[in-house]
Each structure stands twice: as structure tokens, then as C-alpha cells.
Amino acid sequence: MSVIFSDAWLITMNERREILDEASVCVEKDRIVALGTRRDLERRFPEAETVDCKGRIVMPGMVNTHTHLFQTLLKGLGDDMVLKKWFTCMTGPSGVHLTVEDAHVAALHGCVESIHSGVTTLVDFMYVHTKPGMIPSIVEAFEQTGMRGFVCRGFLSTGEQYGVPPELIERPQHALGDARKQIRRYNRPGGRVQIGIAPNMIWAVDEEGYRLTRKLADEERALITTHVAETTFELETAATRYGQTDTEFLSEIGFLGPDVLAAHCVHCKPHDIRILRHHKTKVAHNPCSNMYLASGCPPIPEMLLAGVDIGLASDGPASSNNHSLFQAMKVAALIQKGFHKDSTIITAEKVLEMATIDGARALGLETEIGSIEPGKKADIVVLDFNNPFMTPIHHPVSAIVYSALGHEVSTVMIDGRFVMKDGLVTGVNETELRRKAQMHADNLARRAGSDRLRKRPWRSLAI
Ligand SMILES: [Zn+2]
Known about the structure:
This protein is of the alpha/beta class. It is 38% helix and 21% strand. Strand 8 (148-155), helix 5 (172-186) and strand 9 form a beta-alpha-beta unit. Helix 2 packs across helix 16 (430-448) and helix 13 (348-355) packs across helix 15. The protein binds zinc ion. Zinc ion (ZN) binds at residues 66, 68, 125, 227, 263, 315-316.
């Protein structure tokens, strides 16, 4: 199949960051093959179907470097709580009672929601394995919707003393044995969906868990992702247990490397940042979640200046209530400006880089995705900016980062396949899926006892 996206306002995100007017892009099979004028491309590729993008923005598909898809069923149950209560009363019990069918429906809904907000690659961090079959049920959702990305086999191996439900705790050997099985089942060179490994965090994974993860990743050449320095609690437990920060500890045991994607890094100090840079470890920045859970404002400008690669992320909807990278982009810019009292500290352009090409680099996929250039995979998003929010429009990057709400995404292609066309996701019946997701969310909340949180009193102030 060949397709020409014609006459668009084209944000390439190529090396020169060119923004082209009335530009056209030709896709053949799964790759972008040429950029040019409509006339030129229609002459060179006469068989191609033309998608008229006049008056529209065409941009690379966005990369969500950290989420927990199963939490799609938990939206709104954890609002305005302190972290401990959020985990012990809601997220933890929900994990215990999650079924494989719940995980599948949540992943499907999460993928559909992501596509609607222009995401074409996502990293799922799945740490609930109370029943066998969780990972295949999520891979299936990626297959059905056409999503690209990593389904990471997560685990917790300790942490009961901090409120981790015992049902969620696995022996590292068991968890990583399963991870190896899933990697061998699904990972192919250049495959659209890959399995990664995801030890959870310093207070919920023991040293053996991290050491065995590194060994498995080296043997199978798999991506690792883990939570790093998200909260002060992580630093306190790392100090008590190891007498150092979690970043220092992970470096010392030989865990860090360029294949590690560290989510959050909110409390990384200059020394930790130097360690991340030294190992070329990547960072997934979750601005909405960090604010929602009051974790703190991560040192993003400091990490960027040090040369650390940072991708943008939504985090799970238990702590951000959606998968929108449009919201994440705006919040990522605003929190740094407010925190540093410096409106120049970060730009709309940098934030868009984090959502596209930098996110691709965070996953080691920068030669394949993240920009619109001949030779790259055809992951393309079309935005219809003819609406009250994005107009009047002076500059497309400003409009995307600061004005857009996300519903402007009209057409999405992943790997050369239309996964959404004219506002409708192609791989699923969206109405039916929404009904099913609500049903699974209701039933899970009932089983987990978190449905009482739906009857919350009106709290104008928490105190
Ligand atoms: Zn997370």
C-alpha cells in the first residue's frame, strides 16, 4: 500500500527541525519513502492513495515512554490522596484483584486512548502477575490496535513492610524466568512489539532482583525500565538499606546502562545526574503524575544540560487519569517555568522533542521512529487545527504544546497502517470497548473494595 499525505503543514523533527509549508509525504508499505510537493510525489508514485492534509498539521507519532496500561480502569479513584493511602487503599488492592480479562480490556482501551492523542509508541510497565497470561493479554491489545512499543514484564520481590500486598510479590527467579519465556516468544529483530524487563523500584525489589535483571537483559538484549528517585520515600529507604541513593546503588551493582529507561528521577541530585549521564541511562519524564502525587518537580533542565536523554510520558492513569501526551507536554513546560521562576528555562520546541525524537532515543529507536524522514518507519499523526482551541494559529509548535487539547488528532498511521482514520480507530469497535471498559472498571473496583472511593464526600479542602 502506498499513501501520500498531501499539502500539509509538516513538522519533520528531522536533524534541522524543518517545518515545511504545503509539503507532502509518501509512504510505501511500512516506511516513509519521500518528501516533496504533491505534484512531484503523485507523478513519482502514481498508484498511491492521496490523503488531503490541506489546512492540517502532519507530525511524527508521539512516544509515551512510561505508563501502566492496567491502571486505565482506575481513573479518578486516587484523586487528592497522600501517596501511601493512594497505594494501600487503591492501587495495591486493584492489582491483587485484576484478572487477565481486565488487563486485556484496560490495555485495549489505553491503546485506543493513546492513538486518539497522537501516541504511536508506548512503554507499558506491567507489574501485576497474580495470574498467568497477563503479558500475552497486553501484547494482544497492541496487536489488535496496531500500537508500537514495549510490554515490560515487571515485578516486585519485597516491600510487604511498606504495604505491598503479599499477592503481588514474586521471587525474582520466577518473575525473570517468565520474562525470559515472554522475550523468547515475542521478540524479533525490528519487531513492532517487544518485551522488556521492569523491576519496580528500590523498596520493592531486592538486590538479587536487580542483578538477575541485568544478567537477563544482557543475555537476551532486552530493554530494562525501572522507577528511580520518584519520591523522597525511595531515597529514604535506599539510604536505610544501602547507605546511598538508589541511582548510586544501581550504578554500583552494575545495573545501569544505555538500555535502562529510568522513570521519574524527581529527586536525582547533581551526583546522580552525572551517574545517569555516565551510563547513558535514559529518563522517562512524567510531569502530570509527579504533580498529581506531589512527588516533586524533577530537575529536567539540569539533566538536559548534563546531556541526559529524556522522553516524555503520561504514567499510569491511576496517577494522571489519562494517557494524553498533549497534557504532559503543556504541564512539562509549565512546571519548570513556575518552579524555576524563569519562563525561558524550557521551550515548546524542547517539549515537543521530548514527546517525539527524544522519546525515540530513550528507547534506542531514534533511527527508526521519532521524525518524518525518508527511510524511517511510517508513524504519522494528522491534526485538524480548524477548531476554537488551536486557532488563531501563528506557529504550529506553540499551538500543539500550549493550545491543543488532543482531540485535534484526526488520522494516525503506525508502521504504514491506518490505525485511526477521520477520528475513528480502525482495529476495534470503540463504543463497545468503552462499555466493556466501564463494566470491567466497576467490577474491579467492587472486588478491590475501592468502589467506596467513588462515594467520596465533597472536599473543597482536604483539611
Ligand atoms: Zn510508573
